[in-house]
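In line with agreed milestones, the collection of sequences with tokenised folds has grown. A representative record is reproduced below.
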Amino acid sequence: MQLTDIIIAQIREKGPLSFHDFMEASLYYPGLGYYTGCCQRFGEQGDYYTSPYVSPAFGAMIARQLEEMWENMGKPDFTIVEYGAGNGMLCHDILHYLKENTSLYKHLYYCIIEKSPLLREKQQTHLHEKVIWLDAIEQISGITGCILSNELVDNFSVHRVKMEEELKEVYIDYQDKVFLEILKPAPAVLQDYLVEQGVSLPSGFCTEINLEAKDWISSIAGALNRGYVMTIDYGYAAHELYSEKRRAGTLICYNRHEINDQPYTNIGEQDITAHVNFSALKEWGTKQGLNCCGLTNQAGFLLSLGLKEYLRTIALAGMDLLSAVKKEAFITRKLLLEMGERFKVLIQQKGVPTHALTGLKMK
């Protein structure tokens, strides 16, 4: 049975689905969702690139920041918890870099929390040391180290809303062989979200509300005893996210390296994402005991940690000059120009002395 048919059957049985429930099924329905199916999702043969696919240098720069965090904390036993590790490339590159620091590596633990059975299986084929897999962060507590995510929060299922005479939530119906959007009065929890953000939407404004991010930040704050949270994703602060130029929202779909705004086509075969509200992550984190160290963009983060020097002295060493120049230009274009402004890096801390972090020099 196709996923589209399953969703249609759910609508016929229970009535219109909230967009949140539609997105959840599209991405995560067992065996048929975008992230739970059997197809390659990342890289040249997939639908989009993530930064680890561009170059191992991305993971090396994150490793440098993790190394500094460990030093700031007094060099304790250090646990890295990575959410949604894709095919494991970022984990591999981080461990490869940190292996040179024998003192840290000896006391290092790496946990991957992976929702997709298929991706977990792929990760396990080439991650053979230091790594354990968990279903949820609740399986560990009292973490000393860093909780890391790269392009995770944008794939949490979101509620879509539109401001009319009152705030309305988008639901999905199916009539005459077509998916239709209908509006229902938004529940208090969605209205309260905007009030807490100090946001007043003008008439006709559409946007997304990510309540799952609130639950996520609460769970990781509870599990972290001492250390940091590093969140890398594309998004904006609230004042940018709800600006007039985004009155249609930020929801986009990825299919074969092309972007579209048609979530009701190719169900289960294309990614559906929405930009992250970094102001909300900072605010919720503060309420849960996570102090904000800083927010920067990916370009500033990587440059501050020495990406260019690393490329020229280590990553491209041994290549002939022409090949090295071409490779450096490709990596620079992807990580610093195409992704560098869109992606942000938010670092929060709990229970550790306040130290300036190198990756946040360019705030």
